[in-house]
Amino acid sequence: MERDEFTLVRDMLRAFATRFRTGSADDVKAQTRADAQRALDDLGLTGLRRTSPPAATVQECALLAEEHGRQPLTTSLLGTALLAPELLRLLDDGERADPVHGDRPTVALAGDLRFPDPDAVGLVAWDCDGADTALFVHAEGRVTEHELGAPAPTADLLRGVRRASAEGRPVGRLTPGAHRSWQAYALVVVASELVGAARSFVGQSVDYARERQQYGQPIGSFQAVQHQLADATVLVEACTSAARYAAWCLDSETPDRALTAARVAKAEVNSSAVEAVYAGMQVFGGIAQTWEHVAHLYLRRVLVGATALATTADLLTVLAAPEATR
Amino acid sequence: MKGPTRTLDPDFGLTFSMFYISAVGKGVPAVDFELTEDQETIRKAVAGLLRDFDDRYWMEKDRDHAFPEEFYAAVADGGWLGITIPEEHGGHGLGITEATLLLEEVARSGGGMNAASAIHMSIFGMHPVVVHGSDELKRRTLPRIARGDLHVCFGVTEPGAGLDTTSITTYARRAGDHYVVSGRKVWISKALESEKILLLTRTARRDEVEKPTDGMTLFLTDLDRDRVDIRPIPKMGRNAVSSNEVFIDDLRVPVEDRVGEEGQGFRYLLDGLNPERMLIAAEALGIGRVALDRAVRYGREREVFGRPIGMNQGIQFPLADALAHLDAAELVLRKATWLYDQGRPCGREANTAKYLCADAGFTAADRALQTHGGMGYSEEYPVARFFREARLMRIAPVSQEMVLNYLGSHTLGLPRSY
Ligand SMILES: Cc1cc2nc3c(=O)[nH]c(=O)nc-3n(C[C@H](O)[C@H](O)[C@H](O)COP(=O)(O)OP(=O)(O)OC[C@H]3O[C@@H](n4cnc5c(N)ncnc54)[C@H](O)[C@@H]3O)c2cc1C
Questions:
Q1: Going along B191-271, which residue ranges are E strands?
Q2: Acyl-CoA dehydrogenase/oxidase C-terminal domain spans which residues (chain A) (predicted)?
């Protein structure tokens, strides 16, 4: 996208996010969720990469995912506007058998929210607000479309997760290269949203450390607080760089290299984003332990996010293997 | 003052019964964290004895790679070397609790691992000989160890057998009334300075025995320089005591130098493993304590930005954190030695103590170095030396990873991973 154009899109998303952010866990209601999703849908972001060549780069999509992660939002940007459309785009490189029935699909994952292994059972549709069906990429690259079922339990109070029908309609098959690109893209987008969450939460705790007075001075003047925040900032920078580099790789490198970079990024984010949010929570003190405070919304997002698609153990095991066998 | 003598309380068993409720409801404290008077005496006496061996002394010995003869003589003359050797063989027959207190204090005196390693083998290394050696072998060696005129080293590790001890290949072939030993050992501390070596060999190859731990035989024998070539290994720290490559070429070892029975050597070493871990833990603890003391002193004295650096939480908290970890590690060590002296199982505690003390000691030394800023890197202050020495404790004689292997499989019952 042109620079101005992208800035415009990002500012729209930012304005939306500020308006529809969840102020507290008790505000999460069916009606507010639906209103927020409708407002997001109105931004028309599903078509960002539907043209050929795509209008938006992966880097731009990743920045939008970061932006979305900055606020506690219930809306499905990742599932319905970024992941499912990209999957359909990649399918066009392979065998696109049948049209998709849903108007607004999201993606389905294995029951534990990870990429499926060959004998995965119990699918869930992930990031479902506003979605009507879910697309599932099987371990060997086949893609099927599934109906949405009852809500599934998840610790992330903001993310809509529902059961998905076991049987799916065939939609097509990803080529091996497209499958790698798909995994890389999914890892990057999910990692980017977590980066946004960690960055924003650490930022909020820095603000709090400036304001909150104890012993007659801002708590941020105590080195023990200051240094924790400095360390957290280093962690946020590390995972930001890793995620943005992986996004760049998707725009500029082979699918293999992009997938490696995306795995590194997700592994970095899995630990750093969680650590950074822990640090931020420590700085908020007791207030962060309350239900009303947004801290646990961020914590839940990064904790569940750190296990989504691929856990650190999954990633490090693959990264430790010789390149040729990954 | 002289070392412990026969006049000490014969019932040296510790009243350190903090984990066992002794007399609840009788107005007696259920938990007693005090050392006994005799143990307190050991501490003070050792500290007093070593006061004269200052930072300069250790700095020079370390720099010059010179064995600390004067220190060794002072400890020997004080009667401390035989602290755990039975009385009938010229020692004091005290427990591991006392031995750990001694080594902790020795490391803490500022001598660190240079001091501890100079005497480590004498303090407890003869355990397999005490328990399994023949009377004749004991009579020949133990009194000399206690007096200090017999230096011994311990030869287990080989180039191809580090932690995996049963892979050693140094071979002892029986030939009439003696054995002929050939092989190569590595890392053998104090070999250069030693008259004898407590040597682990194979008398049957690993592929000839049912269990890999079978077929290993232990000797306490002379390091005959005509048959044994000893070459010091340049190393990162603890340089007052050498660690060496030892090339053994047809060394004749009389049968009388065999410790216990042929083929049982590995089992004899196992007996000593837990107390060995406790001693190492005590040394790591001592070095952590002295590093922390020096850091605190420096933190009070050094002024930057118009105030003592110790006034910054960025300096103070890491030191306070190091203190908390040292204190916690010490408690586990005390529990471990108490259990051992009571004859109770203590594998879990011994391993945990080694693990926690090695980490706490190293972390304290690392923070002490940081506290000293640029000066920490200079050899003018002892913290760089403490840092180099404390690092060793996470590797030898058993690495932190192997401790976790022990806890994972033996204590937690998870499947063995290797
Ligand atoms: C200064 C110094 C003095 C020494 N003095 C003596 C001495 O007097 N006598 C003597 O006999 N030896 C001595 N040693 C040797 C010491 O005991 C060994 O270095 C130690 O046992 C580690 O063995 P290694 O160095 O061969 O490491 P290795 O066994 O090669 O291990 C290398 C690394 O792999 C890890 N590792 C190995 N196996 C496993 C596993 N199963 N699971 C997880 N991690 C594993 C280890 O933890 C370590 O990090 C000394 C060593 C030093 C450095």
A1: 196-202, 216-222, 228-232, 243-254, 258-259
A2: 189-305
